[in-house]
Write a structure and sequence with these properties.
This protein is α+β, with helices and mostly antiparallel strands and 618 residues long. It folds into 5 domains: 92 residues, GIY-YIG endonuclease, CATH 3.40.1440.10; 138 residues, no CATH class; 121 residues, Nucleotidyltransferase, domain 5, CATH 3.30.420; 160 residues, 2-Layer Sandwich (Nucleotidyltransferase, domain 5), CATH 3.30.420.340; 50 residues, Orthogonal Bundle (DNA polymerase, domain 1). The chain has 19 helices and 19 strands. The radius of gyration is 33 Å and the shape is elongated. About 1% of the residues have low confidence.
Length: 618
Protein backbone atom coordinates (compact mmCIF):
# COMPACT_ATOMS: atom_id res chain seq x y z
CA UNK A 1 0.00 0.00 0.00
CA UNK A 2 1.45 3.37 -1.02
CA UNK A 3 1.65 5.64 2.04
CA UNK A 4 2.07 9.23 0.80
CA UNK A 5 3.40 10.55 4.12
CA UNK A 6 6.04 7.83 4.26
CA UNK A 7 7.05 8.23 0.61
CA UNK A 8 7.42 12.00 0.99
CA UNK A 9 10.17 11.37 3.55
CA UNK A 10 12.16 9.40 0.95
CA UNK A 11 12.22 12.11 -1.73
CA UNK A 12 15.76 13.27 -2.60
CA UNK A 13 16.93 16.87 -2.62
CA UNK A 14 17.90 16.52 -6.28
CA UNK A 15 16.59 17.77 -9.65
CA UNK A 16 14.19 15.57 -11.55
CA UNK A 17 10.67 14.88 -12.74
CA UNK A 18 7.75 13.77 -10.54
CA UNK A 19 4.78 11.79 -11.88
CA UNK A 20 1.40 11.76 -10.11
CA UNK A 21 -0.98 8.78 -10.43
CA UNK A 22 -4.65 8.47 -9.45
CA UNK A 23 -6.31 5.40 -7.89
CA UNK A 24 -6.67 3.75 -11.32
CA UNK A 25 -2.90 4.25 -11.78
CA UNK A 26 -3.48 6.73 -14.61
CA UNK A 27 -0.88 9.50 -14.87
CA UNK A 28 -2.68 12.76 -14.05
CA UNK A 29 0.22 15.20 -13.74
CA UNK A 30 3.91 15.48 -14.66
CA UNK A 31 6.15 18.20 -13.27
CA UNK A 32 9.81 19.11 -12.98
CA UNK A 33 11.73 20.33 -9.96
CA UNK A 34 15.13 21.65 -9.01
CA UNK A 35 14.58 19.87 -5.68
CA UNK A 36 12.15 16.95 -5.76
CA UNK A 37 11.66 16.86 -1.99
CA UNK A 38 10.86 20.57 -1.70
CA UNK A 39 8.56 20.72 -4.73
CA UNK A 40 6.52 17.57 -4.10
CA UNK A 41 6.12 18.37 -0.40
CA UNK A 42 4.51 21.67 -1.36
CA UNK A 43 1.52 19.92 -2.92
CA UNK A 44 0.57 18.35 0.40
CA UNK A 45 1.05 21.42 2.61
CA UNK A 46 -2.26 23.00 3.61
CA UNK A 47 -0.70 26.46 3.76
CA UNK A 48 0.63 26.32 0.18
CA UNK A 49 -1.76 27.69 -2.45
CA UNK A 50 -1.41 25.96 -5.83
CA UNK A 51 -4.74 27.25 -7.14
CA UNK A 52 -8.09 25.50 -7.55
CA UNK A 53 -7.01 23.22 -10.40
CA UNK A 54 -3.91 21.97 -8.57
CA UNK A 55 -5.91 21.46 -5.35
CA UNK A 56 -8.36 19.32 -7.29
CA UNK A 57 -5.46 17.35 -8.76
CA UNK A 58 -3.93 16.73 -5.32
CA UNK A 59 -7.23 15.26 -4.06
CA UNK A 60 -6.95 12.56 -6.73
CA UNK A 61 -3.32 11.57 -6.09
CA UNK A 62 -3.04 7.95 -4.99
CA UNK A 63 0.70 7.60 -5.49
CA UNK A 64 3.66 9.33 -7.11
CA UNK A 65 6.99 8.34 -8.60
CA UNK A 66 10.02 10.30 -9.72
CA UNK A 67 13.03 10.19 -12.03
CA UNK A 68 16.23 11.85 -10.87
CA UNK A 69 18.21 13.86 -13.46
CA UNK A 70 21.56 15.61 -13.35
CA UNK A 71 20.17 19.10 -13.92
CA UNK A 72 16.99 21.12 -14.09
CA UNK A 73 17.60 21.47 -17.82
CA UNK A 74 17.38 17.70 -18.29
CA UNK A 75 14.28 17.64 -16.08
CA UNK A 76 12.66 20.24 -18.33
CA UNK A 77 13.19 18.20 -21.50
CA UNK A 78 12.12 14.95 -19.81
CA UNK A 79 8.99 16.66 -18.48
CA UNK A 80 8.15 17.76 -22.02
CA UNK A 81 8.60 14.23 -23.41
CA UNK A 82 6.47 12.61 -20.70
CA UNK A 83 3.67 15.16 -21.08
CA UNK A 84 3.57 14.52 -24.83
CA UNK A 85 3.56 10.76 -24.32
CA UNK A 86 0.94 10.49 -21.55
CA UNK A 87 -1.10 13.72 -21.96
CA UNK A 88 -1.93 14.02 -18.23
CA UNK A 89 -5.30 15.51 -17.32
CA UNK A 90 -3.94 18.35 -15.19
CA UNK A 91 -1.08 19.44 -17.45
CA UNK A 92 -2.40 22.32 -19.52
CA UNK A 93 0.64 23.99 -21.14
CA UNK A 94 2.08 21.40 -23.47
CA UNK A 95 5.41 22.55 -24.84
CA UNK A 96 6.56 21.82 -28.37
CA UNK A 97 10.08 20.81 -29.33
CA UNK A 98 10.18 23.58 -31.94
CA UNK A 99 10.76 26.04 -29.09
CA UNK A 100 14.08 24.35 -28.34
CA UNK A 101 17.10 25.06 -30.55
CA UNK A 102 19.50 22.40 -31.88
CA UNK A 103 23.06 22.48 -33.17
CA UNK A 104 23.22 20.89 -36.62
CA UNK A 105 26.39 19.52 -38.24
CA UNK A 106 25.88 18.86 -41.97
CA UNK A 107 28.07 15.76 -42.01
CA UNK A 108 26.51 14.59 -45.29
CA UNK A 109 28.17 17.53 -47.12
CA UNK A 110 31.68 17.19 -48.48
CA UNK A 111 32.75 20.23 -46.45
CA UNK A 112 30.34 20.23 -43.46
CA UNK A 113 29.08 23.30 -41.58
CA UNK A 114 27.85 23.84 -38.01
CA UNK A 115 24.43 25.51 -38.06
CA UNK A 116 21.57 26.65 -35.82
CA UNK A 117 18.35 24.62 -36.24
CA UNK A 118 14.87 24.71 -34.74
CA UNK A 119 13.80 21.19 -35.67
CA UNK A 120 15.80 18.04 -36.44
CA UNK A 121 15.13 16.51 -39.87
CA UNK A 122 16.00 13.24 -41.53
CA UNK A 123 18.67 14.74 -43.75
CA UNK A 124 21.65 12.65 -42.61
CA UNK A 125 22.96 15.59 -40.55
CA UNK A 126 24.05 15.16 -36.95
CA UNK A 127 21.98 17.05 -34.37
CA UNK A 128 22.82 18.04 -30.81
CA UNK A 129 20.16 19.15 -28.34
CA UNK A 130 17.53 20.29 -27.73
CA UNK A 131 18.80 23.21 -25.61
CA UNK A 132 16.94 25.92 -23.74
CA UNK A 133 19.13 28.94 -24.54
CA UNK A 134 19.19 30.04 -28.19
CA UNK A 135 21.83 32.66 -27.35
CA UNK A 136 24.13 30.08 -25.81
CA UNK A 137 23.67 27.84 -28.85
CA UNK A 138 24.65 30.64 -31.23
CA UNK A 139 27.66 31.51 -29.07
CA UNK A 140 28.77 27.89 -29.06
CA UNK A 141 28.39 27.60 -32.84
CA UNK A 142 30.48 30.72 -33.21
CA UNK A 143 33.06 29.31 -30.80
CA UNK A 144 33.21 25.94 -32.59
CA UNK A 145 33.70 27.63 -35.95
CA UNK A 146 36.54 29.73 -34.53
CA UNK A 147 38.20 26.89 -32.61
CA UNK A 148 38.19 24.44 -35.49
CA UNK A 149 38.31 26.91 -38.42
CA UNK A 150 35.11 25.77 -40.10
CA UNK A 151 33.38 27.53 -42.97
CA UNK A 152 30.23 29.59 -42.42
CA UNK A 153 29.30 30.32 -46.06
CA UNK A 154 26.44 28.67 -47.98
CA UNK A 155 28.45 27.76 -51.09
CA UNK A 156 28.31 24.24 -52.47
CA UNK A 157 31.66 22.54 -52.75
CA UNK A 158 33.62 21.41 -54.69
CA UNK A 159 31.41 22.90 -57.46
CA UNK A 160 32.11 26.48 -56.27
CA UNK A 161 35.90 26.25 -55.97
CA UNK A 162 37.51 29.48 -57.26
CA UNK A 163 34.26 31.10 -58.42
CA UNK A 164 34.27 33.83 -55.74
CA UNK A 165 36.89 35.81 -53.88
CA UNK A 166 37.63 34.54 -50.34
CA UNK A 167 35.54 36.21 -47.62
CA UNK A 168 36.72 38.23 -44.62
CA UNK A 169 36.90 35.12 -42.39
CA UNK A 170 39.65 33.75 -44.63
CA UNK A 171 41.68 36.93 -44.36
CA UNK A 172 41.18 36.99 -40.56
CA UNK A 173 42.46 33.42 -40.29
CA UNK A 174 39.12 32.07 -39.07
CA UNK A 175 38.47 29.92 -42.18
CA UNK A 176 40.99 27.78 -44.08
CA UNK A 177 39.62 29.07 -47.39
CA UNK A 178 37.65 26.09 -48.59
CA UNK A 179 36.49 28.20 -51.54
CA UNK A 180 40.08 28.45 -52.78
CA UNK A 181 40.41 24.68 -53.03
CA UNK A 182 43.63 24.81 -51.00
CA UNK A 183 42.43 22.45 -48.23
CA UNK A 184 41.61 18.81 -48.96
CA UNK A 185 38.36 17.21 -47.95
CA UNK A 186 40.23 14.77 -45.65
CA UNK A 187 42.08 17.55 -43.83
CA UNK A 188 38.90 19.58 -43.38
CA UNK A 189 37.02 16.50 -42.19
CA UNK A 190 39.54 16.07 -39.36
CA UNK A 191 38.56 19.50 -38.03
CA UNK A 192 34.88 18.60 -38.35
CA UNK A 193 35.42 15.37 -36.40
CA UNK A 194 37.07 17.34 -33.59
CA UNK A 195 34.12 19.74 -33.53
CA UNK A 196 31.66 16.81 -33.35
CA UNK A 197 33.66 15.25 -30.50
CA UNK A 198 33.52 18.57 -28.66
CA UNK A 199 29.75 18.83 -29.11
CA UNK A 200 29.38 15.18 -28.10
CA UNK A 201 30.89 15.87 -24.70
CA UNK A 202 34.68 15.90 -25.14
CA UNK A 203 34.90 19.54 -24.12
CA UNK A 204 37.32 19.42 -21.17
CA UNK A 205 40.41 20.37 -23.24
CA UNK A 206 38.58 23.42 -24.64
CA UNK A 207 37.32 24.51 -21.23
CA UNK A 208 40.82 24.09 -19.83
CA UNK A 209 42.28 26.17 -22.68
CA UNK A 210 39.66 28.94 -22.32
CA UNK A 211 40.15 29.02 -18.54
CA UNK A 212 43.91 29.40 -18.97
CA UNK A 213 43.46 32.21 -21.49
CA UNK A 214 40.98 33.98 -19.22
CA UNK A 215 43.36 33.79 -16.29
CA UNK A 216 46.30 34.94 -18.43
CA UNK A 217 44.33 37.93 -19.71
CA UNK A 218 43.20 38.78 -16.19
CA UNK A 219 46.77 38.55 -14.87
CA UNK A 220 47.88 40.89 -17.68
CA UNK A 221 45.10 43.29 -16.63
CA UNK A 222 43.35 42.74 -20.01
CA UNK A 223 39.95 42.59 -18.33
CA UNK A 224 37.90 43.12 -21.46
CA UNK A 225 39.63 40.20 -23.15
CA UNK A 226 39.28 38.14 -19.98
CA UNK A 227 35.54 38.91 -19.89
CA UNK A 228 35.24 37.66 -23.47
CA UNK A 229 36.78 34.31 -22.50
CA UNK A 230 34.56 34.20 -19.39
CA UNK A 231 31.40 34.68 -21.47
CA UNK A 232 32.54 32.03 -23.93
CA UNK A 233 33.15 29.64 -21.04
CA UNK A 234 29.61 30.19 -19.74
CA UNK A 235 28.15 29.60 -23.18
CA UNK A 236 30.13 26.39 -23.60
CA UNK A 237 29.12 25.06 -20.18
CA UNK A 238 25.48 25.88 -20.84
CA UNK A 239 25.36 24.18 -24.22
CA UNK A 240 27.57 21.16 -23.67
CA UNK A 241 25.65 20.15 -20.55
CA UNK A 242 24.87 16.87 -22.23
CA UNK A 243 21.24 16.36 -23.11
CA UNK A 244 20.63 12.75 -22.17
CA UNK A 245 16.86 12.89 -22.46
CA UNK A 246 16.34 13.30 -26.22
CA UNK A 247 18.14 11.69 -29.14
CA UNK A 248 17.88 13.25 -32.56
CA UNK A 249 18.49 10.01 -34.47
CA UNK A 250 14.91 8.86 -33.78
CA UNK A 251 16.00 5.30 -32.92
CA UNK A 252 14.35 3.13 -30.27
CA UNK A 253 16.68 2.39 -27.37
CA UNK A 254 16.58 0.80 -23.93
CA UNK A 255 19.00 1.96 -21.24
CA UNK A 256 19.69 -0.76 -18.65
CA UNK A 257 21.56 -0.24 -15.39
CA UNK A 258 21.41 -1.72 -11.90
CA UNK A 259 22.26 -1.14 -8.27
CA UNK A 260 22.94 -4.09 -5.95
CA UNK A 261 23.33 -4.46 -2.21
CA UNK A 262 23.83 -7.88 -0.69
CA UNK A 263 21.06 -10.17 -1.93
CA UNK A 264 18.93 -7.33 -3.31
CA UNK A 265 19.24 -5.59 -6.66
CA UNK A 266 17.19 -3.14 -8.69
CA UNK A 267 17.46 -2.98 -12.46
CA UNK A 268 16.32 0.30 -14.02
CA UNK A 269 15.23 0.40 -17.67
CA UNK A 270 14.74 3.72 -19.49
CA UNK A 271 12.62 3.45 -22.64
CA UNK A 272 13.53 5.75 -25.54
CA UNK A 273 11.04 5.55 -28.38
CA UNK A 274 11.29 7.61 -31.54
CA UNK A 275 14.32 9.34 -30.05
CA UNK A 276 12.48 10.49 -26.90
CA UNK A 277 12.60 9.11 -23.39
CA UNK A 278 8.96 8.27 -22.65
CA UNK A 279 9.17 6.34 -19.40
CA UNK A 280 10.98 3.87 -17.19
CA UNK A 281 10.42 0.72 -15.18
CA UNK A 282 12.38 -0.77 -12.33
CA UNK A 283 12.62 -4.44 -11.42
CA UNK A 284 13.49 -5.69 -7.96
CA UNK A 285 15.34 -9.00 -8.08
CA UNK A 286 16.97 -11.36 -5.61
CA UNK A 287 20.62 -12.17 -6.24
CA UNK A 288 23.46 -13.94 -4.50
CA UNK A 289 26.04 -11.88 -2.66
CA UNK A 290 28.80 -13.21 -4.90
CA UNK A 291 26.96 -12.34 -8.14
CA UNK A 292 28.77 -9.71 -10.21
CA UNK A 293 27.09 -6.89 -12.14
CA UNK A 294 27.80 -8.58 -15.52
CA UNK A 295 26.21 -11.83 -14.25
CA UNK A 296 23.11 -10.03 -12.97
CA UNK A 297 22.74 -7.97 -16.15
CA UNK A 298 23.16 -11.06 -18.32
CA UNK A 299 20.40 -12.92 -16.47
CA UNK A 300 18.13 -9.89 -16.57
CA UNK A 301 18.57 -9.24 -20.30
CA UNK A 302 17.82 -12.88 -21.11
CA UNK A 303 14.69 -13.05 -18.94
CA UNK A 304 13.35 -9.55 -19.67
CA UNK A 305 13.62 -9.68 -23.47
CA UNK A 306 12.36 -13.26 -23.61
CA UNK A 307 9.04 -12.01 -22.27
CA UNK A 308 8.58 -8.60 -23.92
CA UNK A 309 7.29 -8.12 -27.48
CA UNK A 310 9.04 -4.75 -27.86
CA UNK A 311 12.74 -5.13 -28.56
CA UNK A 312 14.59 -1.91 -29.51
CA UNK A 313 17.31 -1.59 -32.12
CA UNK A 314 19.88 -0.62 -29.49
CA UNK A 315 20.37 -1.60 -25.84
CA UNK A 316 22.84 0.35 -23.72
CA UNK A 317 24.22 -1.57 -20.74
CA UNK A 318 26.05 -0.49 -17.65
CA UNK A 319 28.70 -3.20 -18.08
CA UNK A 320 29.62 -5.73 -20.72
CA UNK A 321 27.61 -8.91 -20.29
CA UNK A 322 28.48 -12.55 -20.82
CA UNK A 323 27.78 -14.12 -24.22
CA UNK A 324 27.08 -10.67 -25.65
CA UNK A 325 27.44 -11.78 -29.28
CA UNK A 326 25.15 -14.79 -28.81
CA UNK A 327 22.49 -12.71 -27.01
CA UNK A 328 22.68 -10.04 -29.72
CA UNK A 329 22.04 -12.69 -32.42
CA UNK A 330 19.16 -14.13 -30.40
CA UNK A 331 17.53 -10.71 -29.99
CA UNK A 332 18.06 -9.93 -33.67
CA UNK A 333 16.26 -13.14 -34.63
CA UNK A 334 13.35 -12.32 -32.29
CA UNK A 335 13.01 -8.80 -33.68
CA UNK A 336 13.69 -9.66 -37.31
CA UNK A 337 16.22 -6.81 -37.48
CA UNK A 338 19.71 -6.33 -36.14
CA UNK A 339 19.82 -5.57 -32.41
CA UNK A 340 23.05 -4.15 -31.01
CA UNK A 341 24.26 -4.17 -27.40
CA UNK A 342 26.50 -1.30 -26.30
CA UNK A 343 28.52 -0.55 -23.17
CA UNK A 344 29.26 3.18 -23.63
CA UNK A 345 32.47 4.50 -22.09
CA UNK A 346 32.14 8.23 -22.73
CA UNK A 347 29.89 11.02 -23.91
CA UNK A 348 26.13 11.28 -23.94
CA UNK A 349 25.42 7.57 -23.87
CA UNK A 350 27.58 6.94 -20.82
CA UNK A 351 25.87 9.81 -18.99
CA UNK A 352 22.45 8.33 -19.74
CA UNK A 353 23.53 4.92 -18.37
CA UNK A 354 24.91 6.70 -15.29
CA UNK A 355 21.54 8.40 -14.78
CA UNK A 356 19.75 5.03 -14.99
CA UNK A 357 22.17 3.61 -12.43
CA UNK A 358 21.61 6.56 -10.12
CA UNK A 359 17.85 6.05 -10.30
CA UNK A 360 18.26 2.32 -9.65
CA UNK A 361 20.21 3.15 -6.50
CA UNK A 362 17.50 5.61 -5.42
CA UNK A 363 14.83 2.93 -5.86
CA UNK A 364 16.90 0.35 -4.01
CA UNK A 365 17.52 2.66 -1.07
CA UNK A 366 14.12 4.35 -0.82
CA UNK A 367 11.70 1.67 -2.00
CA UNK A 368 13.29 -1.51 -0.66
CA UNK A 369 10.75 -1.92 2.16
CA UNK A 370 7.73 -1.17 -0.05
CA UNK A 371 8.85 -3.43 -2.89
CA UNK A 372 9.57 -6.32 -0.52
CA UNK A 373 6.15 -5.86 1.04
CA UNK A 374 4.55 -6.01 -2.40
CA UNK A 375 6.62 -9.08 -3.23
CA UNK A 376 5.34 -10.68 0.00
CA UNK A 377 1.75 -10.01 -1.11
CA UNK A 378 2.33 -11.70 -4.45
CA UNK A 379 5.27 -14.06 -4.94
CA UNK A 380 5.67 -14.59 -1.19
CA UNK A 381 1.98 -15.48 -0.90
CA UNK A 382 2.32 -18.01 -3.73
CA UNK A 383 5.23 -19.60 -1.85
CA UNK A 384 3.11 -19.86 1.30
CA UNK A 385 0.32 -21.63 -0.58
CA UNK A 386 2.83 -23.98 -2.24
CA UNK A 387 4.28 -24.92 1.17
CA UNK A 388 0.79 -25.50 2.60
CA UNK A 389 -0.09 -28.10 -0.02
CA UNK A 390 3.41 -29.56 -0.40
CA UNK A 391 4.38 -28.23 -3.83
CA UNK A 392 7.88 -26.95 -4.69
CA UNK A 393 6.53 -23.78 -6.22
CA UNK A 394 3.45 -22.21 -7.83
CA UNK A 395 3.69 -19.79 -10.73
CA UNK A 396 0.17 -19.89 -12.18
CA UNK A 397 -3.17 -20.52 -10.45
CA UNK A 398 -6.57 -20.84 -12.12
CA UNK A 399 -9.84 -20.45 -10.19
CA UNK A 400 -13.33 -21.37 -11.39
CA UNK A 401 -16.83 -20.33 -10.33
CA UNK A 402 -20.40 -20.90 -11.51
CA UNK A 403 -23.23 -18.36 -11.50
CA UNK A 404 -26.89 -19.30 -12.11
CA UNK A 405 -28.91 -16.78 -10.10
CA UNK A 406 -32.66 -17.41 -10.21
CA UNK A 407 -32.28 -20.48 -12.41
CA UNK A 408 -31.38 -18.29 -15.38
CA UNK A 409 -28.75 -19.37 -17.92
CA UNK A 410 -25.74 -20.77 -16.04
CA UNK A 411 -22.30 -19.36 -16.76
CA UNK A 412 -18.79 -20.22 -15.66
CA UNK A 413 -15.74 -18.08 -15.04
CA UNK A 414 -12.03 -18.82 -15.14
CA UNK A 415 -9.63 -16.31 -13.61
CA UNK A 416 -5.85 -16.56 -13.67
CA UNK A 417 -3.22 -15.31 -11.23
CA UNK A 418 0.46 -15.43 -12.13
CA UNK A 419 3.16 -14.51 -9.61
CA UNK A 420 0.36 -13.52 -7.25
CA UNK A 421 -1.20 -10.94 -9.59
CA UNK A 422 -4.30 -11.11 -11.83
CA UNK A 423 -3.50 -11.94 -15.46
CA UNK A 424 -6.69 -10.53 -16.97
CA UNK A 425 -5.79 -11.25 -20.58
CA UNK A 426 -6.05 -14.96 -19.73
CA UNK A 427 -9.48 -14.74 -18.06
CA UNK A 428 -12.21 -16.76 -19.83
CA UNK A 429 -16.04 -16.81 -19.74
CA UNK A 430 -18.17 -19.91 -20.43
CA UNK A 431 -21.82 -19.94 -21.42
CA UNK A 432 -23.11 -23.38 -20.46
CA UNK A 433 -24.35 -25.48 -23.40
CA UNK A 434 -25.32 -28.87 -21.90
CA UNK A 435 -26.66 -27.95 -18.47
CA UNK A 436 -30.02 -26.37 -17.67
CA UNK A 437 -31.03 -25.13 -14.25
CA UNK A 438 -29.00 -24.83 -11.03
CA UNK A 439 -26.65 -27.84 -11.36
CA UNK A 440 -23.30 -26.55 -10.05
CA UNK A 441 -21.47 -29.87 -10.30
CA UNK A 442 -22.67 -30.55 -13.83
CA UNK A 443 -21.88 -26.97 -14.83
CA UNK A 444 -18.37 -27.18 -13.39
CA UNK A 445 -17.77 -30.49 -15.18
CA UNK A 446 -18.68 -28.87 -18.52
CA UNK A 447 -16.53 -25.78 -17.90
CA UNK A 448 -13.43 -27.76 -16.94
CA UNK A 449 -13.89 -30.27 -19.75
CA UNK A 450 -14.19 -27.50 -22.34
CA UNK A 451 -11.25 -25.54 -20.92
CA UNK A 452 -8.73 -28.40 -20.81
CA UNK A 453 -9.95 -30.21 -23.94
CA UNK A 454 -9.58 -26.93 -25.82
CA UNK A 455 -6.12 -26.46 -24.32
CA UNK A 456 -4.99 -29.94 -25.37
CA UNK A 457 -6.24 -29.38 -28.93
CA UNK A 458 -4.44 -26.03 -29.13
CA UNK A 459 -1.24 -27.57 -27.78
CA UNK A 460 -1.39 -30.18 -30.52
CA UNK A 461 -2.02 -27.50 -33.18
CA UNK A 462 0.75 -25.31 -31.79
CA UNK A 463 3.23 -28.19 -32.05
CA UNK A 464 2.28 -28.76 -35.67
CA UNK A 465 1.94 -25.17 -36.82
CA UNK A 466 4.04 -23.32 -34.24
CA UNK A 467 1.06 -21.10 -33.39
CA UNK A 468 0.79 -19.96 -29.73
CA UNK A 469 -2.66 -19.90 -28.14
CA UNK A 470 -4.40 -18.59 -25.02
CA UNK A 471 -5.44 -21.97 -23.59
CA UNK A 472 -2.09 -23.73 -24.01
CA UNK A 473 -0.71 -22.61 -20.64
CA UNK A 474 -1.86 -25.02 -17.93
CA UNK A 475 -1.91 -24.03 -14.25
CA UNK A 476 0.39 -25.33 -11.52
CA UNK A 477 -2.69 -25.70 -9.31
CA UNK A 478 -6.47 -25.41 -9.83
CA UNK A 479 -8.43 -23.57 -7.13
CA UNK A 480 -12.11 -24.57 -6.95
CA UNK A 481 -14.76 -22.36 -5.34
CA UNK A 482 -16.00 -24.98 -2.88
CA UNK A 483 -14.97 -28.07 -0.96
CA UNK A 484 -14.86 -31.82 -1.49
CA UNK A 485 -17.62 -32.03 -4.13
CA UNK A 486 -16.14 -29.46 -6.50
CA UNK A 487 -12.62 -30.84 -6.05
CA UNK A 488 -13.78 -34.36 -6.93
CA UNK A 489 -15.50 -33.07 -10.09
CA UNK A 490 -12.24 -31.42 -11.18
CA UNK A 491 -10.18 -34.54 -10.43
CA UNK A 492 -12.58 -36.71 -12.46
CA UNK A 493 -12.34 -34.39 -15.47
CA UNK A 494 -8.51 -34.32 -15.28
CA UNK A 495 -8.39 -38.11 -15.02
CA UNK A 496 -10.62 -38.49 -18.10
CA UNK A 497 -8.26 -36.17 -20.03
CA UNK A 498 -5.15 -37.90 -18.67
CA UNK A 499 -3.88 -34.72 -16.99
CA UNK A 500 -2.16 -34.46 -13.62
CA UNK A 501 -2.72 -31.07 -11.99
CA UNK A 502 -3.12 -30.49 -8.22
CA UNK A 503 -6.64 -29.36 -7.24
CA UNK A 504 -7.57 -27.36 -4.13
CA UNK A 505 -10.97 -26.40 -2.81
CA UNK A 506 -11.37 -22.93 -1.30
CA UNK A 507 -13.62 -23.80 1.62
CA UNK A 508 -15.97 -21.18 3.11
CA UNK A 509 -17.53 -20.94 6.55
CA UNK A 510 -21.20 -20.36 7.44
CA UNK A 511 -20.75 -16.64 6.77
CA UNK A 512 -19.51 -17.39 3.26
CA UNK A 513 -15.95 -16.36 4.16
CA UNK A 514 -12.84 -18.31 3.19
CA UNK A 515 -11.74 -20.55 6.04
CA UNK A 516 -9.23 -23.00 4.58
CA UNK A 517 -8.08 -25.25 1.72
CA UNK A 518 -9.37 -28.72 0.89
CA UNK A 519 -6.52 -30.78 -0.56
CA UNK A 520 -5.83 -34.53 -0.76
CA UNK A 521 -9.04 -35.37 1.13
CA UNK A 522 -8.36 -33.13 4.10
CA UNK A 523 -9.02 -29.55 5.07
CA UNK A 524 -5.89 -27.52 5.71
CA UNK A 525 -6.35 -24.56 8.06
CA UNK A 526 -4.72 -21.27 7.09
CA UNK A 527 -3.55 -18.39 9.25
CA UNK A 528 -6.11 -15.67 8.46
CA UNK A 529 -3.46 -12.99 8.89
CA UNK A 530 -1.02 -14.54 6.40
CA UNK A 531 -0.39 -13.21 2.89
CA UNK A 532 -1.27 -16.63 1.49
CA UNK A 533 -4.75 -16.47 3.03
CA UNK A 534 -5.28 -12.94 1.69
CA UNK A 535 -4.25 -14.06 -1.80
CA UNK A 536 -6.68 -16.99 -1.73
CA UNK A 537 -9.46 -14.61 -0.69
CA UNK A 538 -8.61 -12.22 -3.55
CA UNK A 539 -8.58 -15.11 -6.02
CA UNK A 540 -11.93 -16.45 -4.80
CA UNK A 541 -13.57 -13.02 -4.82
CA UNK A 542 -12.23 -12.31 -8.33
CA UNK A 543 -13.62 -15.59 -9.73
CA UNK A 544 -17.01 -14.83 -8.17
CA UNK A 545 -17.01 -11.21 -9.41
CA UNK A 546 -16.09 -12.24 -12.96
CA UNK A 547 -18.85 -14.88 -13.10
CA UNK A 548 -21.50 -12.55 -11.67
CA UNK A 549 -20.56 -9.73 -14.07
CA UNK A 550 -20.92 -12.02 -17.08
CA UNK A 551 -24.19 -13.44 -15.76
CA UNK A 552 -25.65 -9.96 -15.29
CA UNK A 553 -24.73 -8.93 -18.83
CA UNK A 554 -26.50 -12.00 -20.26
CA UNK A 555 -29.58 -11.37 -18.15
CA UNK A 556 -29.72 -7.77 -19.36
CA UNK A 557 -29.47 -8.82 -23.00
CA UNK A 558 -32.11 -11.53 -22.53
CA UNK A 559 -34.53 -9.02 -21.02
CA UNK A 560 -34.05 -6.68 -23.98
CA UNK A 561 -34.49 -9.54 -26.41
CA UNK A 562 -37.73 -10.73 -24.81
CA UNK A 563 -39.21 -7.26 -25.33
CA UNK A 564 -38.07 -7.06 -28.92
CA UNK A 565 -39.38 -10.43 -30.05
CA UNK A 566 -42.99 -9.27 -29.87
CA UNK A 567 -42.70 -5.81 -31.44
CA UNK A 568 -44.48 -5.58 -34.82
CA UNK A 569 -42.26 -4.53 -37.71
CA UNK A 570 -38.98 -5.33 -35.89
CA UNK A 571 -37.13 -8.18 -37.52
CA UNK A 572 -33.74 -9.82 -36.74
CA UNK A 573 -31.61 -6.95 -38.17
CA UNK A 574 -33.47 -4.26 -36.21
CA UNK A 575 -33.50 -6.39 -33.03
CA UNK A 576 -29.71 -6.76 -33.28
CA UNK A 577 -29.31 -3.01 -33.89
CA UNK A 578 -31.43 -2.18 -30.81
CA UNK A 579 -29.51 -4.65 -28.64
CA UNK A 580 -26.26 -3.12 -29.84
CA UNK A 581 -27.47 0.42 -29.10
CA UNK A 582 -29.04 -0.14 -25.66
CA UNK A 583 -27.49 -1.97 -22.72
CA UNK A 584 -30.75 -2.71 -20.91
CA UNK A 585 -34.53 -2.76 -21.32
CA UNK A 586 -34.77 0.27 -19.05
CA UNK A 587 -32.50 2.33 -21.28
CA UNK A 588 -34.51 1.29 -24.36
CA UNK A 589 -37.78 2.23 -22.68
CA UNK A 590 -36.47 5.73 -21.91
CA UNK A 591 -35.48 6.39 -25.54
CA UNK A 592 -37.53 8.85 -27.55
CA UNK A 593 -38.84 8.27 -31.08
CA UNK A 594 -36.23 10.75 -32.35
CA UNK A 595 -33.37 8.80 -30.81
CA UNK A 596 -34.75 5.47 -32.06
CA UNK A 597 -35.13 6.80 -35.59
CA UNK A 598 -31.46 7.90 -35.66
CA UNK A 599 -30.33 4.26 -35.56
CA UNK A 600 -29.25 3.42 -39.15
CA UNK A 601 -31.34 0.22 -39.33
CA UNK A 602 -34.50 1.98 -38.10
CA UNK A 603 -36.91 4.26 -39.97
CA UNK A 604 -39.53 6.59 -38.52
CA UNK A 605 -42.34 4.02 -38.74
CA UNK A 606 -40.40 1.26 -36.97
CA UNK A 607 -39.18 3.73 -34.31
CA UNK A 608 -42.79 4.74 -33.60
CA UNK A 609 -43.77 1.06 -33.47
CA UNK A 610 -41.08 0.32 -30.84
CA UNK A 611 -42.01 3.40 -28.81
CA UNK A 612 -45.75 2.57 -28.94
CA UNK A 613 -45.09 -1.03 -27.86
CA UNK A 614 -43.03 0.09 -24.86
CA UNK A 615 -45.47 2.85 -23.88
CA UNK A 616 -48.96 1.34 -24.23
CA UNK A 617 -51.84 3.77 -23.72
CA UNK A 618 -54.05 3.13 -20.73
Amino acid sequence: MFQIEEELKKLPDLPGVYIMHDKTDEIIYVGKALSLTKRVHQYFQASHDEGIRKKQMVSHIARFEYIVTDSELEALVLECNLIKEHRPKYNTMLRDDKTYPYIKVTVAEKYPRVLFSRRPEKDRSKYFGPFTSAGAVRDTIDLVNKLYHLRTCNQKFPESFGKKRPCLNYHMGQCPGVCTGKISEEEYRQSVDKAVAFLDGDYKPVIRELTEKMEEASAALEFERAATFRDLLESVKSCVETQKITYSDGEDKDIVALAADGEDAVVQVFFIRGGKMIGREHYFINVRIQDTYPEILTAFVQQFYAGTPMIPREIYLQEEIEDEEVISRWLSEKKGKKVTLFTPKRGQKEKLVEMAGKNARMVLDADRERIKKEEGRTIGAMKEIAELIGLKSIHRMEAYDISNTGGFQSVGSMVVFEKGKPLRNDYRKFRLKTIEGPDDYGSMREVLTRRFSHGLRELESAEKEDVPSGFTKFPDVIMMDGGKGQVNVALEVLKELDLTIPVCGMVKDDRHRTRGLYFNNEEIPIDKHSEGFKLITRLQDEAHRFAITYHKSLRGKAQVKSFLDDIPGVGPARRKALMREFESAEELREASVERLSKIPEMDRRSAESVYAFLHPKA
